[in-house]
Amino acid sequence: MTADSKSPRPRVANRPPVEHLRTALALAAAGVPVLPLRAGKVPFGNCHACAAGACGGRPHMKTPGPCQCPGVCHGWAAATTNPHVLTSAAWAPAWRQAVSVAYHPGGAGLTVVDLDNPEAIAWARTTLPATRKVATTRGEHWLYRGAMQSANAVRPGVDIKSTMAYARWLGPGTGTMTDLPEAVRALAVKEPSPVCPAPHAVAVPAPVGGGECRHRTPAYLDRGIAMAEQRITEARSAVHTTVYRTFLVVLSTHGRCGCLTDTHVARLFTAAEAKGESPRHCTDAWTNARTRLGL
User: Measuring CA to CA, how many Å separate 224 from each of 84, 144, 227?
Assistant: First the structure.
């Protein structure tokens, strides 16, 4: 046995990860824009011409179009389906260091609901329509057919990755992909700007059209208010958005028949203020919810 044969074999991590490039080319051929990721599951840094904003404010990050730089540049905007770009000399160094492949969901007409923990998965199973699922390190990616704006932390442990974002390619997944539901689009809806905010207490709306109360017993309303209080109290992030959406749910259910009283509204405001919301923010959120529902 020669000395050369006794020398240790190089670590797999030091070898050019040809399999990543092969995966990228296969996805690109299917119309999925791809890019390499380095250690830490992050894109490669910008090219020298674009480093530190020298390119003029990172223009390619402002629109959902591909990056025009020759190398892997501007994060998600580098994603491409062009095999000549993927196999170019400018991209070769990135592929040699790549640890995984990412893709631009919005560029492929897809939306990924990134569920980061078992609690988020449990929420999705009871809230969202079933669709194709891909297992991740800690949770699941739910893939829907259709693109939308991306948004982080739409609720605890849930991110939305579609336009102007990237997701790791972890395999085709299982199950039948379904169309993007309104329930997912609604998660990314930001609270509208205040519309004629009222600085004082909000009066409970009177019944619309004089309709009869649909709630058979007071217990139905009390249970709804208690659930709304709990939802606000348990919010661990995006408290302002949670308060607004909770107000919207309460008003959509109880706001047209005149059941709500000042006491009920005060309970909701108290729960919101306990999470750090100011009285003014509570009033604005309530007013905006009423305006959206036409109350």
Answer: 58, 31, 5
> Residue 146: helix, strand or coil by DSSP?
coil
Report CA-CA distances (Å) from 186 to 40, 91, 148, 209.
Answer: 30, 38, 10, 28
Write the single-letter amino acid at 242. Answer: T
Provide the pLDDT for residue 286.
Answer: 86
Give strand ranges (E) for the chain.
34-37, 100-103, 110-115, 132-135, 140-145, 151-155, 158-161, 167-168, 178-179
CA distances from 278 to 198, 236, 249, 268, 281 (A): 13, 17, 20, 13, 5
The letter for the amino acid at 47 is C
What is the torsional sign of CA 164, 170, 171, 172?
negative
pLDDT band at 264 (very low <50, low <70, confident <90, very high): confident
**Regarding beta strands 178-179 and 140-145, do their DSSP bridges make them parallel or antiparallel, or are they unpaired?**
parallel
pTM for the full predicted model: 0.60
The residues near 235 (Cβ < 8 Å, ≥ 6 apart) are: 156, 242, 243, 275
- How many C-beta atoms lie closer than 10 Å to residue 281's C-beta? 20
Q: Measure the CA–CA gap between 35 and 56, rounded to whole angstroms.
A: 23
Mean pLDDT of 26-41: 94
Determine contact, residues 156/114, Cβ cutoff 8 Å.
no
**What's the rounded Cα separation, in Å, for the pair 212 and 234?**
33
Taking Cα atoms as reference points, which of 124, 130, 116, 234 lies closest to residue 173?
130
Higher pLDDT, 80 or 45: 80
Residue with tokens 């309104």: 182
Sheet strands (E) in 79-198: 100-103, 110-115, 132-135, 140-145, 151-155, 158-161, 167-168, 178-179
Q: Cα–Cα distances in Å, from 33 out to 79, 116, 144?
A: 5, 24, 16
